[in-house]
Amino acid sequence: QVQLQESGPGLVKPSQTLSLTCTVSGGSIATIHYSWSWFRQPPGKGLEWIGSIRYSMGTYYSPSLKSRTSISGDTSKNQFTLQLSSVTPEDTAEYYCARRGDYAFDNWGQGTQVTVSS
Q1: I need a surface site. Which of 19, 88, 111, 112 has the fewest CB within 10 A?
Q2: Cβ atoms of residues 116 and 88 within 8 Å
Q3: 66-71 — which CB contacts under 8 Å span 24+ positions?
Q4: Which of helix, strand or coil describes residue 46?
Q5: What is the pLDDT of residues 16-75, one digit of tens each?
Q6: Which pLDDT does position 96 carry in this prediction?
Q7: Residues near 60 by beta carbon (within 8 Å), at least 6 away in sequence
Q8: Which residues are within 8 A (CB) of 35 and not within 5 positions of it... i.e. 6 or more apart?
Q9: Alpha-carbon span 53 to 36, nearest angstrom
């Protein structure tokens, strides 16, 4: 059973970089059969895809966030990380990591709340 767990600071100041880590257990991120993604859901809004990473194949980002986003993987720790720079209060959201197979996102973390505030 694959499990994903997000971790990181719950409060980030405006203009700083938000950094979150997703730790994967029960399966390896070093596989071409799955991609690993970040999503977020601001208060009162829908779920937004931020970007994905797939082992040996690269990263993919939402056009609206691409200029501020970086996703990387650490196969030795079986983790992947989101960095979102120059944050504003509009980046306040519940952040989720997820695994995608051939047809669907089949495993999700429980989510972590991030608030951007001075």
Answers
A1: 88
A2: yes
A3: 71/38
A4: coil
A5: 999 999 999 999 999 999 999 999 999 999 999 999 999 988 999 999 999 999 999 999
A6: 98
A7: 35, 51, 52, 53, 54
A8: 52, 53, 54, 60, 99, 100
A9: 5
Residue recorded with tokens 């952040």: 95
pLDDT per residue as tens digits for the range 3-27: 999 999 999 999 999 999 999 999 9
Q: For the chain, how far is it from start to end, CA to CA, in angstroms?
A: 39
Determine the pLDDT at residue 102: 85
Q: Residue 107 has which token pair?
A: 């495993």
* 97 to 9, 11, 16, 117: CA distances (angstroms): 15, 18, 21, 23
Where do we find the tokens 């990591």?
97
Q: HSE-up of 51 (CA within 13 Å, CB side)? A: 23
pLDDT for 90 beyond 90: yes
Pair of tokens at residue 29: 């991120």
